[in-house]
């Protein structure tokens, strides 16, 4: 009996030691995660490195909840930085650890699939995006805690509207977008105030954000009667929440930008400038280039309308530089792949200073090569756009699409009225009257002796564009043909070309030209001269 008893005691002590070590590892990872998350002093890059190390640690020790917790924090950080490829890479790795049916694991998995779905949507991966949202909603609905359940469902429904921004769904996007935004508000309002799960600030941050999204939805249709007033109403509701609750800085910055947009549409340019500058001040705290580039765009446009050309030029240059940088990042991310990064982190704790120097040198060389490749890709992309533009100019053959009737909830136009306005539009285009600086919707409606609504609807029906984009398209198309067909035009300055096609501002002309042709007029002229 004694040997058996001794063997049992030794086995028990061995298991106890193993359990104690596992418990210590879990406690250490949890404490480190809390410390990293709460640290507001360290830089984003340092925080990223610490998260990656901790994720590797949790994976190595097969600590499932640790993998989910650290992975979620890393995904959330990448999502806020707009690094969608890294979000998806992390998501694919940690979703393999979706074991356990406890409440905390379900909540984490709901958020992980929700953030993953948003990143997939941003990259246009529609089918995978839908599947990920479906899984996120399934996990969220299984939560017993109603406050957590409704908060995550509110997030999912708001995020789901990204699907309707994809080209294939354009004709259904308006009603569907508003439907899901209203569902999001409905779920957020079900969260109880003063609960221990979701703070009131977080609840009302969600509601304010959705009101802001509703305002954007209205501002995108600002050429329709009543939509500008509707956008202002939504934004005022969001601003009221902002006054009474602590909403997240990045959401506050985005909200102020949309208020700036609204005042720009109302032609109250000083107010628009004020809100754009306030947004930039907040953006400095958390560095969001997509919000910053939006502020620069509004400031450039408003100062141009106020005839303060130097200020407009300054912000236009900032806008163009940052916009090009963001486009380059979207086309080829310079972030290292996650798997490579985690692999590099293995063994770093015991590396000598000599190895660290080798690693830094190698990293520098790799980054230099990658940047060179990206630069060459950018030049190649611009050349392809130029070739595409030349091919379009050579083979362009416009066809007028007609239908028997235009109908929506507010306006009904018969076939004769449509054809009459279309004929007038064709004569207007043939006469090149769009080159006149005084052209606006009211002016053209008076020239056609027709209703503004009828004219706006017919233009939308004929071209698929609102009035502003329609006129800009005609002007840019005209000057593009002049540059291509007549070499003399290639010698003129940008300011002259702008005036020639009806623009009073060369900066606005450059923005419109790049929007229509995807290359700047300077680049187009340079290639034509070669």
How would you summarize what this structure contains?
With 530 residues, the protein is mainly alpha-helical. It is built from 23 helices and two strands.
Sequence-ordered SSE layout with sheet pairings:
Blueprint: H1 2-38, H2 44-60, H3 64-80, H4 84-94, H5 103-122, H6 126-141, H7 146-160, H8 170-189, H9 200-219, H10 227-244, H11 249-265, H12 269-283, H13 289-305, H14 309-331, H15 338-345, H16 353-395, E1 406-407, E2 412-413, H17 415-430, H18 441-448, H19 452-463, H20 467-485, H21 494-500, H22 506-517, H23 521-529
Antiparallel strand pairs: 1-2
Helix pairs in contact: 1-2, 1-3, 2-3, 3-4, 3-5, 4-5, 5-6, 5-7, 6-7, 7-8, 7-9, 8-9, 9-10, 9-11, 10-11, 11-12, 11-13, 12-13, 13-14, 17-19, 20-22
Structural write-up:
- 75% of the residues lie in helices and 1% in strands.
- 32% of the residues are buried.
- The protein is globular and about 80 Å long.
- Mean pLDDT is 80; it is low at 8-22, 332-350 and 397-411.
- It has a two-stranded antiparallel ribbon.
- It is mainly alpha-helical.
- It has a domain at 23-36 and 43-144: Tetratricopeptide repeat domain (Serine Threonine Protein Phosphatase 5, Tetratricopeptide repeat).
- The protein has helices spanning 2-38, 44-60, 64-80, 84-94, 103-122, 126-141, 146-160, 170-189, 200-219, 227-244, 249-265, 269-283, 289-305, 309-331, 338-345, 353-395, 415-430, 441-448, 452-463, 467-485, 494-500, 506-517, 521-529, and strands at 406-407, 412-413.
